[in-house]
Design a protein that fits this description.
Helix content is 29%, strand content 41%. Strands 1, 2, 3, 4, 5, 6 and 9 form a seven-stranded mixed β-sheet that branches. The chain is of the alpha+beta class. A hairpin with a 6-residue loop joins strand 12 and strand 13. The protein has two domains: 194 residues, Rossmann fold (3-Layer(aba) Sandwich); 82 residues, FlgT, C-terminal domain (Thrombin, subunit H, Beta Barrel).
Length: 312
C-alpha cells in the first residue's frame, strides 16, 4: 500500500512538472534601438551590452524560455530591422510574431555616459571618473502589442582615477633638488571599462528582478493552434509554405509533407476516384514571416500544393 502511494505521488509530481513545462513563456530580449541609440554611439553600445547582460540574468528562469540570439538576429536582418527604430510597441509585436514568442522584452537605454573631472588642491590634482546608466525594459505582448510591464533602473558612481602631485624644486645650499611629479592610479581605460561593466551588470540584475516579480501578472503564451499549410514552392533550396507566424508557426516546427495520389481506381459504391496520402518528406521550419514560412525538407522533393501537416 505504501509503495502504491509513493508511486502515485511521484506520478502526480511528474504530471505537474510536465504541465508547468507546457505553459512556459517564450520571451525574446531585444535592443529597442530608439532615437537616442540611433544618434549616440555610446548609448547604442550600452544598450547592446545591457541586452546581453539582461539575457544572462534571465537565462534559466523557471517557466520562461528565451529565444537564442542567433534566431533574433536572423529575423532582424531578414526584415531590415537591424538599424531601425524598434522601440514602438507595434513594431515589437510584429517582431515577436515572426519569432513565435509570447512576449518581447525591449531594452532601451536613454542615458549613458562616462566623464572625468579633475579637481586641484594645492599641488595635488585628483581626477575622478563618473559613469551614468539609465534604462528600462518594456515587456510587450506579441499578440496585442500591450505593454505588460515597464521597469526602469539607474546607476551612477564616481571612482578615483588618478592623483598627480607636483613638488617644486629648489636650491638648498650647494644641493639643487629638481622639481618632481608623482602620479598614482590605475590605467584610465581599464577603470572606465570596469565601471561600464559594473553599471550594466547592476542595472541588468535590477531589471531582471523587477521582470521576475511581474511574472504572476503576465499570462503564458497560448498554445499555438494546429495549422496545416500547403507547399508554395522551392526557392534557393528552401521549401516555402503558405502559412506563417500569424497562425503560430515558428522556427523549429516540423511538418509532415504529403501528396494526394490518384490510385487510378474508383470507389465501387460511389464511382468516385480513390486517392491516398503519400508521405514526401519532413519539413523543419527555419524562418517564419507573417504569412509564410520556409525550411529544409528531409526525404523526397516536395512540389506545389503538397500538404504540410504539423508533427506533434
Amino acid at each position: 500500500m505504501k509503495f502504491k502511494f509513493v508511486f502515485l505521488l511521484a506520478l502526480s509530481l511528474v504530471a505537474s512538472s510536465f504541465a508547468i513545462g507546457q505553459q512556459a513563456r517564450r520571451w525574446a530580449i531585444v535592443t529597442a534601438h530608439g532615437p537616442a541609440a540611433s544618434s549616440n554611439g555610446e548609448i547604442a553600445r550600452a544598450e547592446a551590452r545591457l541586452t546581453d547582460d539582461l539575457t544572462t540574468q534571465l537565462t534559466g528562469l523557471s517557466g520562461v524560455a528565451l529565444i537564442d540570439r542567433a534566431s533574433i538576429d536572423k529575423v532582424l536582418k531578414e526584415q531590415n530591422f537591424q538599424n531601425s527604430d524598434r522601440s514602438s510597441a507595434d513594431t515589437a509585436a510584429r517582431i515577436g510574431k515572426l519569432l513565435g514568442v509570447g512576449q518581447m522584452v525591449m531594452v532601451q537605454v536613454y542615458d549613458a555616459s562616462y566623464t572625468t573631472h579633475a579637481e586641484q588642491s594645492g599641488n595635488t590634482t585628483r581626477t575622478t571618473g563618473t559613469v551614468v546608466l539609465r534604462a528600462n525594459a518594456r515587456m510587450i505582448d506579441a499578440e496585442t502589442a500591450v505593454i505588460q510591464a515597464q521597469p526602469s533602473s539607474a546607476f551612477q558612481e564616481s571612482v578615483p582615477v588618478s592623483e598627480t602631485s607636483n613638488s617644486q624644486g629648489g636650491q638648498y645650499g650647494p644641493i639643487r633638488v629638481p622639481a618632481r611629479k608623482k602620479v598614482t592610479g590605475g590605467d584610465p581605460k581599464v577603470i572606465e571599462d570596469n565601471e561600464w561593466a559594473k553599471a550594466s551588470e547592476t542595472v541588468a540584475k535590477d531589471l531582471a528582478g523587477k521582470l521576475t516579480s511581474a511574472l504572476p501578472t503576465i499570462s503564458a503564451v497560448p498554445t499555438a493552434k494546429t495549422v496545416s499549410a500547403m507547399v508554395a514552392g522551392i526557392v534557393n533550396g528552401e521549401v516555402f509554405i503558405n502559412r506563417g507566424a500569424t497562425v503560430g508557426i515558428k522556427a523549429g516546427d516540423k511538418f509532415q509533407v504529403t501528396r494526394v495520389v490518384d490510385l487510378k481506381i474508383n470507389d465501387p459504391e460511389t464511382g468516385k476516384p480513390m486517392t491516398k496520402k503519400q508521405p514526401v518528406c519532413v519539413l523543419t521550419i527555419v524562418s517564419a514571416e507573417e504569412s509564410n514560412a520556409s525550411g529544409k525538407c528531409q526525404g523526397g522533393l516536395p512540389q506545389s500544393k503538397d500538404v504540410a501537416e504539423p508533427l506533434r
